[in-house]
Amino acid sequence: MKERIGFIGLGAMGAGMADNLLRKGWPLTVCVHRSRTAAERLIAAGATEAVSPRDLAAACDIVILCVTGSREVEMLVKGPNGLAAAGTPLLIIDCSTSNPSSTTALAAELAALGVTLIDAPLARTPKEAAEGKLDVMVGGAAEAVARARPVLEAFAARIIHTGPTGSGHTMKLLNNFVSMGYSAIYSEALTLGAKAGLTPQVFNSVISGSRMDCGFYQAFFDFVLNRNENAQRFAIANALKDMTYLASFAQAAGVANPVGAVVRNGFATAVATGHGEKFVPALSDIVAGLNGVSLVEPPAE
């Protein structure tokens, strides 16, 4: 008999994940965190609804969180209406991109209450979430990860056990450091090229198909060249949040992180100039605009 699954965080990623769980036969209860749109669709398809995280925990064996970060996770877990208040031996799977230090501290606090927390952040996009083909990095004890694995397999094509609780969130920050670093480099390179009269099309003709090409590059340049706003649906404000977590992690680890600081400042500038809700590839336009050039060809007269 399948365990009862609870889900909070039915956003761009979470909606597809929850849909896969329901379609693959998992008993699903949802609790609305922000928008009701996806929840209404899932309820119509057979999910049930809990009015609070506490009620959700009381009705479920495993709860998946897919929210913005540590602050939201702690708000949902703690307090009189939080998940922990139900007093049940719950397994919480945090698929958010959270601060590893917050994750390990929260896991220890919950363990004293008989609740297990593992971290299982995600890679790839809402498209793969809907298709059940996400990558998941899981941090936790082997027995907890083994219990979670059949649930994760409903929406993941690759599941990597990274080590103890907190290691999944650490690996996710490193993953995002690399990808956001690419974004900052692409944006600055395109701006330098534009200043010198090299168009994004010329830039792409050299990089695409070369050793420097990759899936991330192709998604980023789908926006740059084709203006596909949905090519990479990850908000600049969330990129800044993750780079801020990385800076905190580096400081705690006593590691000099100068490149990370530069990448973070690029996203901080974008947010400070009012572009936080745009998706990451739009950083290319923001950097170009701040330098007085455009990456978009003017319409033919």
UniProtKB/TrEMBL annotation:
Protein name as catalogued: NAD(P)-dependent oxidoreductase
Pfam families registered for this protein in UniProt: NAD_binding_11 (PF14833), NAD_binding_2 (PF03446)
Species annotation: Mesorhizobium jarvisii
NAD in keyword set: yes
GO molecular function, one term: oxidoreductase activity
Keywords of the record: NAD, Oxidoreductase
Domain of life of the source: Bacteria
Upper classification of the organism: Bacteria, Pseudomonadati, Pseudomonadota, Alphaproteobacteria, Hyphomicrobiales
Family per record: Belongs to the HIBADH-related family.
GO BP, sorted A to Z: organic acid catabolic process
